[in-house]
Design goal:
Blueprint: H1 2-9, E1 13-19, E2 29-34, H2 38-54, E3 60-62, E4 69-73, E5 77-82, H3 84-90, H4 92-95, E6 101-104
Parallel strand pairs: 2-5
Antiparallel strand pairs: 1-2, 1-6, 3-4, 4-5
Helix pairs in contact: 1-2
């Protein structure tokens, strides 16, 4: 998926694809990534939106710079960019623990 490749290319950490089809009424997939820093969070968000643009998908962005969580809602695909602290606090993978998950290992 182009979004995951974009996040990997910008050094997103612990990228996870959650398949929510069949268990969620509002999204088919969550893509979750952890940013290394605030600058990296912006870079990851930009990379994800560039990928969505190239796919012709419209989206809305929530979460400003300085927040622990940026959400890019493209309808059936939702991209979550977290700070390390935000990811630990919100624990989306645990919340959606019954969803099939695919992890993409970072080089670190």
């Amino acid at each position: 998926m182009p979004i995951i490749g974009a996040l990997e290319s910008k050094h997103g950490l612990d990228i996870v694809f959650l398949d929510l089809s069949g268990i969620s009424g509002f999204a088919d997939a969550f893509i979750i990534a952890t940013a290394r820093s605030e600058v990296n969070a912006q870079t990851l968000s930009d990379a994800a939106t560039d990928a969505l643009d190239s796919m012709g998908m419209s989206y809305k962005i929530e979460g400003a710079s300085g927040s622990k969580w940026r959400l890019i809602d493209a309808g059936h695909v939702v991209v979550h960019v977290f700070s390390r602290e935000g990811r630990e606090f919100y624990k989306l993978e645990r919340l959606w623990g019954d969803a099939p998950a695919k992890r993409f290992e970072s080089e670190e």
